[in-house]
Design a protein that fits this description.
This protein is an alpha/beta fold and 292 residues long. The chain has helices spanning 3-16, 19-26, 30-44, 60-88, 101-113, 125-133, 195-207, 221-230, 239-245, 268-275, 278-285, and strands spanning 49-50, 57-58, 91-95, 118-122, 139-144, 151-159, 186-188, 215-217, 234-238, 248-250, 257-265. The strands form 2 sheets. Strands 3, 4, 5, 6, 7, 8, 9, 10 and 11 form a 9-stranded mixed beta sheet that branches. A two-stranded antiparallel ribbon has the order 1-2. A hairpin with a 6-residue loop joins strand 1 (49-50) and strand 2 (57-58). It starts with a helix and ends in a 7-residue tail after the last helix.
C-alpha cells in the first residue's frame, strides 16, 4: 500500500469534508481516494470517517490521527521539494584550463537536457584528481595516458608563421654553429606538464641533440603564446587549440603524441550522468574522432 498517498487522501478529504473535493485536491480520481482511505482504515484498524452522512465527517479515531497525518504529509511535501532542489543543484566539475567558454556553455546546455546543471572549475592537470579526492568537486576530467583515455586529443606544434605541408621534425630545430642566437624553442604548456607527455618530449629533445632550454615547460599558456606570436618559437598544442590562438599547426615528425582524458568521480553515478554528454565533452577538449 502507498501509505503516503493514503495519508494524503485522508488529509485532503478531512480538510474539505468531501471525498470528491478531497480527491480533486490530491490530484486523484474519487474512487482512488475512497480505496486509499479504506485501505488506510484496514491498516490502522479503525474507521476514519463516519459514512452514515453525506458529508465526510471524521470519527473520534480519525480526529485523533489527523494532526499526525497532516505532519506526515507536510514532511513528505518538504522531502519532494528538497529532492527537486537537489536535482537542480549544479554538479561542480573540474575541467582543463584549455576549455573555451563557448564549448563549456554548450556542454552545460547539453547536460540540462538530461536534468544535470554544471558548475565548472578550471584547474591544471595535477590538481583535478585531487579536487575529486577532497570532495571539492563531484567530477573531474583527469589527464591519463592516451591508451587509457575515453577521449584523446592529438598533439603537434604550432607557430605564428605559415604552416608547412608536412610534419615538423624536432631535429630540424638544431641551430647551426654560425647561428647560436637562432635556436628555436618548443614550449610545453601546463596542460601537458604530465609524465606521459612531458617526459616523452624531453627524451626526444635529448635524443635529437637539442639544448635543454629549447624544449621546456612554460609558466602559463598566455606567456607561451605571447612568446610564440612574437618569435619563430613553437607551442605544443592540439589542432583545435592552435585554431583558437590563431596559430598554424603541424604534427611532430618523430613523435605521435596525444592527450588522454577520462572522468573521475567520488560517486560513480555522477560520472555516468556526465558521460551521457560525451560529444559535448569531446568538443570542449578538442578531441578528434573520439566516441567518448
Amino acid at each position: 500500500m502507498d501509505l503516503i498517498g493514503a495519508y494524503r487522501a485522508f488529509v485532503h478529504v478531512s480538510e474539505r469534508g468531501s471525498f470528491t473535493l478531497g480527491a480533486a485536491a490530491a490530484g486523484i480520481p474519487q474512487p482512488v481516494a475512497s480505496r486509499r482511505v479504506a485501505a488506510l482504515e484496514d491498516h490502522l484498524g479503525g474507521r476514519l470517517f463516519d459514512r452514515s452522512t453525506r458529508r465526510a465527517s471524521l470519527t473520534p479515531f480519525g480526529l485523533d490521527l489527523l494532526p499526525s497525518a497532516q505532519r506526515l504529509v507536510r514532511l513528505a511535501d518538504d522531502m519532494e521539494h528538497e529532492a527537486r532542489r537537489a536535482r537542480l543543484r549544479p554538479m561542480r566539475v573540474a575541467v582543463p584550463q584549455t576549455c573555451g567558454v563557448r564549448e563549456l556553455a554548450n556542454l552545460d546546455a547539453d547536460a540540462r537536457v538530461h536534468d544535470v546543471f554544471l558548475d565548472f572549475r578550471p584547474a591544471p592537470p595535477g590538481q583535478r584528481a585531487e579536487l575529486v579526492r577532497n570532495r571539492e568537486v563531484r567530477v573531474a576530467l583527469v589527464a591519463v595516458p592516451e591508451s587509457d583515455g575515453a577521449w584523446t586529443v592529438p598533439l603537434g606544434v604550432a607557430g605564428s608563421g605559415a604552416a608547412g605541408t608536412g610534419a615538423v621534425y624536432l631535429e630540424s630545430l638544431r641551430a647551426l654553429r654560425s647561428e647560436p642566437a637562432g635556436r628555436r624553442r618548443v614550449w610545453i604548456q601546463p596542460e601537458d606538464d604530465v609524465p606521459h607527455i612531458r617526459d616523452r618530449v624531453l627524451r626526444m629533445r635529448d635524443a635529437v641533440g637539442l639544448r635543454p632550454s629549447q624544449v621546456s615547460v612554460a609558466d602559463s599558456l598566455v606567456s607561451a603564446t605571447a612568446d610564440v606570436l612574437g618569435t619563430h618559437n613553437l607551442l605544443l598544442c592540439s589542432r583545435a587549440q592552435a585554431g583558437e590562438l590563431g596559430l598554424s599547426w603541424q604534427p611532430i615528425g618523430e613523435l605521435r603524441l596525444a592527450r588522454g582524458y577520462d572522468l573521475a568521480a567520488a560517486v560513480a553515478d555522477d560520472a555516468a550522468r556526465l558521460r551521457a554528454c560525451a560529444a559535448g565533452i569531446a568538443r570542449c577538449l578538442g578531441a578528434e574522432g573520439s566516441a567518448g
